[in-house]
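Pilot study result, target chain (535 residues):
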Amino acid sequence: MKFDLTDYPYSSQRRSVYARNGMVATSQPLAAQAGLDILKKGGNAIDAAVATAACLTVVEPTSNGIGGDAFALVWTQGKLYGLNSSGPAPEALSLNVLEGLGIKEIPKYGWIPVTVPGAPAAWQELSSRFGRLPLTEVLDPAIRYAEEGFPVSPTVALLWKRAHKNFTKSLQGPEFKHWFETFTPKGRAPEVGEIWSSKGHAETLMSIAETKAQSFYRGDIAEKIDRFSREFGGYLRKKDLENFQPEWVEPISINYRGYDVWEIPPNGHGLVALMALNILKGFDFEFKESPETYHKQIEAMKLAFVDGLKYIADPAHMSIRVEDLLSDAYAEERRRLIGKEALQPEPGTPPKGGTVYLAAADGEGNMVSYIQSNYMGFGSGLVVPGTGISLHNRGNNFSLDPSSDNVLKPGKRPYHTIIPGFLTKDGQAVGPFGVMGGFMQPQGHVQVVMNTVDFGLNPQAALDSPRWQWKKGKTVEIEHSFKKYIAGCLKEAGHDIQYNVDSSGFGRGQIIWRTESGVLIGGSEPRTDGVAASW
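Predicted structure:
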């Protein structure tokens, strides 16, 4: 792969990072360095990814936690593996239960949206199958930061402050007091550079490491979660935790201009990115910064997203096959809908047949694309007493429409927004990439892939490039750095263009590519505190 090494006009003034022995790219420097330290101790890229992921639950609790879900794409020994470690709804929670309570839509906070957390199981599964070092050594950096404390970084401090302001208004009830005790012990969010620690978090991580996550799903921690849930009328039980097992899945892909773009299959919405790219590969793009390029990108994304929102669910409950949604014939059918004017997207009918992201690579050829999340920042607002475990609220993505593929059912996994990406060419790894941020994620994937493949931007420039985000209907948000001339042309084409000066909503990405000579090239998101730590 050849890149244009010149700076992008909207550059963050960072440069792509080059290394040979190893690299870890993520949104918080301490976590990236923790992963790199594991590489230097003899661990491989999988060990580094797990170390970084665990560390991120401590140093960036505003976006993820021990009580969240995780997905991974792992390249090792010439093959790509997929891991889905997202948890299902509790067996005690059903549509009938919510109807009996008079609930018309799933709330954001409290026990109702809490599904089984999958992150600890993901760490153990990755470590046991592909790792080299014991989990106790891999989780040690995270344990030390939780116990001894760390200085809070700027973006994390900002998000923490926003969460505290929101939760002060939104979280009413004694079940939420443990969040405030854990994350705002001084009655406020920590300031930039202030030291924050969590002894309970450290003890939980230590227990997970020493028991290989058994304590979380079958031991003392599971009992604490069960007890907390029962005390406040929750639905999650120890039995739900005991029954959980991460699933190794076959990644899905399309070929885009000679490159294979890989995503995790549903229940994640990486499928949306692939559907959009499948539509876009039928067009030729001469220039990146042109109204026509952006118009077609936006239209393809709208068409892919409305299909995704209609059809993506737990794969056991989907009415449409993935291969039908990714067929060239269906892509051509959707492509024909794109004209010169912005359209109001509607789902098609195919023929029937708060997140953190990290990328890690080592000098041996192993590469990992990994993502985990609590959803909506801190998640449900519930923290298991004395453990530091902030439970996620991923069940908020379930539908309560009985006719929906994604309708809530006991033991069923919800539509999931967090997705890791991977790029290969001619059967060889190019590398991991990802853009975290709720429903921005597949949109970020499409923009990063096109910046790389169509326009030859190096990793840092591909991330620096101004982003757009389709919201609904004809509404598209754009960053303040977006060219005004292009924004004006898009308005003339019928798009409802809205500038957003807050770049935090446009995703936070990381990229590591490997050249044919084995050199690693990394970029880290300029919209957060991240870094591509290298060796």
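One observation from the pilot: The first helix runs from residue 29 to 40. A full batch analysis is planned for the follow-on phase.
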